[in-house]
Amino acid sequence: MERKTKFSIINKKLAITIMSIILLFFLMNILRNISISKIDTTTLNNFCTIFISMILEGLPFIIIGSLISSFIQLFISEETILKIIPKNKIVGLFCAASIGLIFPICDCAIIPVTRRLIKKGVPVGIAITFMISVPIINPIVLFSTYYAFTGKLYIVIARALIGFISAILIGYFIDLLHRGNALRHNIHINKCSCNCNGHHSHNYNNASHKIYFLSDIVYHTSSETYNTGKLFIIGALISSFVQTYVPKKYIFSIGQGEIYSILIMFLLAYLLCICSQTDAFIARAFLGQFTVGSVIGFLIFGPMLDIKNTLMLMGTFNKKFAIKLILLIISICFIMAISANYVIPLSLKIIGGI
After folding, report:
1. Is residue 215 within 8 Å of 204, Cβ to Cβ?
2. 50: which of 98, 224, 240, 245 fits an S-S bond (Cβ 3.0–4.6 Å)?
């Protein structure tokens, strides 16, 4: 009975979310085809295109992330995770940052996975390092960066290396700055069909569990998708509005200088909400117009923090932790971008360019 009630609630939430998206698309389509003198249809079309492309680009990755999160919930026990994690904190942070090299998930999908890992007992610092490194140094992102910056291998190396170091530093300092539960609500594991409360991995060879395999996957995936997806949609809506109605010339006009260029590129990364697998193609257009440090800052800051990710972080972690994490991300990325302004040109002079 309890399980039926939970499924009913989740189904209602999903139905409301899906119907809201459909209704929003329907209304946007109507507005696009209405000729009203006070409405600039070209601008409105741009807004609709940007918003819809964001949704279509991001939601599949959120669903993938939620599905991975569900498998972690159902098949990996707390005991297994604790055995895998190195006892040494520094080694654990290095291992967490390195996982990104073989874990092809973008920033849209990583937050639900991170939340599940924390619920399963992974130390917060290690989980945050994992969350930050994966969208920056995973193989798909590095390949797209290499393709976008053809002939400029140093950009790929700088993104991977600086992203790796930044993730470790952020994970290390957030572990020092915060104690206690980092999640927004008290740690709660969704109940499964077997009423295990999620406190063990499942063996679906057992007859009583095998029956509920598919329903458990659907239940956990839909729950994670709803919790994360609703915030992503709001963030995409805000970002689309900003991209459409805030003139970019005002942003570019103050983008000169080592400090200002970094701040402007951070602002662009935050407002544009570009997926980490495609942001290199946008950053390529700014190389030469802005400092190299600001371009690297764009490539490492964007996957860590933008409008949609901010809303997702605030919805996942408690307020104090989220604010500390956001400020830490901004500080570390800013320091790294300033350092890149000096280190990269110096390195290129020494080795002759790559």
Report:
1. no
2. 240
Q: How far apart are CA 146 and CA 76, in angstroms?
A: 35
Cα 205 to Cα 322: distance, rounded to the nearest angstrom: 40
Alpha helix stretches (DSSP H) within the chain: 2-33, 41-75, 78-84, 89-98, 107-119, 124-137, 139-148, 153-177, 207-210, 213-245, 248-252, 258-272, 279-283, 292-304, 307-316, 319-351
**Tokens standing for 236?**
């995409």
Enumerate residues 6+ apart whose C-beta is below 8 A from 245: 43, 47
φ, ψ of residue 290 to 5 degrees: the values are -120, 165
- CB 267, CB 307: distance < 8 Å: no
CB 10 within 8 A of CB 222: yes
Q: Give residue 17's pLDDT.
A: 61
66: closest CA among 190, 161, 163? 190
Q: Which of the two residues, 161 and 286, has the higher pLDDT score?
A: 161
Span 195-218, mean pLDDT?
Answer: 56
What is d(CA 109, CA 232) in angstroms, rounded to the nearest whole number?
A: 10
Element (H, E) at 200: none
The answer to pTM > 0.85 is no
- Number of Cβ atoms within 10 Å of the Cβ of 273: 27
Structure tokens at 56: 């279509």
3-state secondary structure (DSSP) of residue 290: strand
How far are the Cα atoms of 19, 94, 209 from residue 270, in angstroms, in the given order? 28, 27, 44
